[in-house]
Amino acid sequence: MSDSAPTPPAPQTLTRAQQERRTALRSLAVGAGVTCAALAGLLRTKLATGAPRLRPPGAIDEDAFLAACIKCGQCVQVCPVQAIELADLIEGLGSGAPYIAARAQACDFSCDAVQCVLACPTGALTHKIDKKEQVRIGVAELAAPDRCLARKGQGFKGPARGVDHAGKLRYPEIDRWKPKPVAAHPYDLDLCDLCVRQCPIEGAISLQPAAGLTNDKARTPVVTDKCVGCGVCEMICPAEPAAIRIAPRVTGRHPA
């Protein structure tokens, strides 16, 4: 019996056709990878330049904000009404960045707009802005006048957004600091004035007579320059979709 090691099999030589097939498959794989990377870059660009988000109070200009924010979620954790969310992966360059979906849950200034700013470690949220602008995150607009109950001269009765709405709101006449569920706070109004009644900023919005309104009781919401864009009016509006909405500010928030 021989003690010598077995002879390894001779390496197989690929035929020219096999070599060409392997090269073609490799080229296809590389090409697919480059295409996917290009499409991913395009998608990120498209998503990042889509409709602007409503950022938390004290946010600096959008481009600077996205560069400064490290997506740590500290502002989310300290918000007393859980108004701040983090964008998911389909947001492209904005993925992981905090935003406010005012229709679902507005920033009602329960904390006077300081907790999220104090929690931010990078200056993406800051109070180092002109005092008039330091917490201005957007501006309310009567986006759908034909749906506004006040303009129709109509009242409202019941919870503003129905019994299933999960939003919370600070009712100063009940508790200055502890927000209450909107669904647990019914109204009985001869003329709907919820956007004015629940606005946390005095003088930011009022109901005024307007030309073209046929009902004597009818009034139209008028937004003043005191509006900071907190989103309470959008959240509380009983019309569906909301008659009044917040237009986010993406510029004009530079630190001083």
In words, what does this structure look like?
The protein has 6 helices and 10 strands; from the N terminus they run H-H-H-E-E-H-E-E-E-E-E-H-E-E-H-E. It has one domain. The chain is α+β, with helices and mostly antiparallel strands. The strands form 5 sheets. The chain has a two-stranded antiparallel ribbon. Strands 3-10 form a two-stranded antiparallel ribbon.
In short:
The chain has helices at residues 16-48, 62-68, 74-78, 115-119, 194-197, 232-236, and strands at residues 84-86, 98-100, 138-142, 156-159, 168-169, 180-181, 186-189, 205-208, 220-223, 244-248.
Which descriptors apply to this entry?
single chain; 256 residues; alpha+beta; two-stranded antiparallel ribbon; 10 strands; 14% strand
Query: What's the average pLDDT?
Result: 84
Distance between the termini: 91 Å
How big a fraction of the residues is strand?
Answer: 5-15%
**Helix fraction by DSSP (H/I, runs of at least 4):** 10-25%
The total count of strands amounts to 10
Query: Which term fits the overall shape?
Result: elongated
Q: Outline the low-pLDDT stretches.
A: 44-49
Helical/strand content category: alpha+beta
What characterizes the major β-sheet? Answer: 2 strands, antiparallel
State the helix count: 6
List the secondary-structure elements in sequence, H or E. HHHEEHEEEEEHEEHE
- Count structural domains: 1
Mind telling me the C-alpha Rg?
Answer: 28 Å
Going across the major beta sheet, what is the strand order? 1-2
